[in-house]
Design a protein that fits this description.
Length: about 270
């Protein structure tokens, strides 16, 4: 019988994008049909992964060095789609790592995060194909590893992982998608807008899953979830969230109005 955690690790470390996607879908299909098909015995050691498996390209560079291109140009437009594809590729690994790294959670936790991983595969493949339709490919442009950096920083703290990846970094996507779709409309890229509609719908669910397990873990420790969230933002020096919030979709994903009021105050640098 295959060990679930070992299979997740194998998928994270896989360099070939198509094989990584196939492995992820296989794990999801198996656990969604029959969780008893896997062994869930904790592995003797859990390794720190400084960088998940990826193809030789894209070249990973500092976020500050990623070129800024005008989306009105062919390369600039493809660069935006490429950046989105890279986010979704990272999101596959993040969901797999949420399963691999934290090996003492209820079975429902692993079912939830494998669903996320499977949907991130779908998003990545949609964007990868769209890049091909634009005469580019994944790996053509350089990219950064900012999302994975937070995974490394939270590798020993599952509450911090739930707070700072789905509830902070991924939730930011709920705010950003409408503005990106306006840019794509200016480029008359209707297919990309349709893809972002799919991603946006699923990301509300993904942030909600993060919220669910964050609340579960806070309840286990008998701590206030809102207070814990802001304490973790400070402790891990999380990136400040700038700009307006997509309040309605964040509420759908499980944020409360009071928490969003505090988050707006926090993002503006005011004391809570």
């Amino acid at each position: 019988m295959n060990n679930f955690f070992k299979l997740c690790l194998d998928a994270i470390l896989e360099n070939n994008t198509a094989t990584k996607c196939d492995l992820t879908n296989h794990i999801y299909n198996t656990i969604s049909k029959d969780s008893n098909a896997f062994e869930f015995a904790p592995l003797p050691s859990i390794i720190s992964i400084t960088s998940p498996g990826k193809p030789e390209k894209p070249e990973l560079i500092s976020p500050l060095k990623v070129p800024k291109r005008k989306t009105g140009t062919k390369e600039g437009h493809a660069g935006l789609i490429h950046a989105l594809a890279h986010i979704e590729f990272n999101a596959i690994n993040l969901a797999l790592d949420a399963c691999y790294r934290f090996q003492n959670m209820p079975i429902e936790y692993y079912q939830d995060w494998m669903q996320v991983a499977k949907e991130e595969v779908y998003h990545f493949q949609l964007l990868e194909q769209h890049l091909i339709n634009l005469d580019f490919s994944y790996g053509y442009f350089p990219a950064h590893n900012g999302l994975w950096d937070m995974a490394i920083r939270t590798e020993d703290d599952i509450i911090a992982r739930m707070a700072l990846v789905p509830r902070t970094l991924e939730a930011r996507g709920l705010d950003a998608v409408p503005d990106m779709q306006k840019k794509l409309l200016a480029s008359n890229d209707i297919r990309a807008i349709e893809i972002l509609d799919i991603i946006h719908h699923d990301e509300i669910k993904h942030v909600s899953i993060g919220n669910t397990w964050f609340q579960y873990l806070c309840n286990q420790k008998n701590t206030n979830s809102e207070d814990t969230f802001f304490e973790l933002l400070e402790k891990y020096n999380a990136p400040k969230i700038r700009g307006s919030f997509n309040r309605s979709d964040r509420i759908k994903a499980g944020f409360s109005n009071s928490e969003l009021d505090k988050l707006l105050q926090y993002s503006s640098g005011q004391a809570l």
